[in-house]
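To: structure desk
From: M.T.
Subject: fold request, one chain
Message: Could you run this one when you get a chance? Sequence is below, nothing fancy, just the single chain.
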Amino acid sequence: MALEFSASQELFILIFAIHFTLIIERVHQNYNPYDTYSAWKGIPHAIKRLLLSWTILYILPLLQFAIFFILLGIYEVDFEMTIRGVFSIVLVGLLSFFDFGYYRIFEAALYYSPDSFFTKEEQDKFLEKERGEVRAHLIPGICYVVATVIMLLILIAWNTI
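Reply: Done. Structure tokens follow.
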């Protein structure tokens, strides 16, 4: 039994895969959240950072991806070469940007309580740049996530009219 995806689902998968990969690579370079060796050794900072990253960077985005993916399969999206079709392509492309919102929320959690997630030496290495206050990460992160939900609703409404 082969799964057949709609054009909107295929476009969404493609763009989400690119964003997801870029975010995971970026967070790995900037904050080393996947230090499984240190977590396995029982170092509390590494365990907390690993669990936080799994929750915010994997579970939540993949849950939102699944919901969006299912909805894109239920509602037919028009990709004809019209203004409506072009607008639909742009919206489907922008839907996957919620992943960047989760990255910002992850950063907010790290900067809210750096002593929980990093040793003093790690803070000097990974949090060396002043990134501003927590709200500068949290509010845009939430806005990215909420904006993509609104865009999905607009896309569905635009294509069911």
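Reply (cont.): The radius of gyration is 18 Å. Let me know if you need anything else for the meeting.
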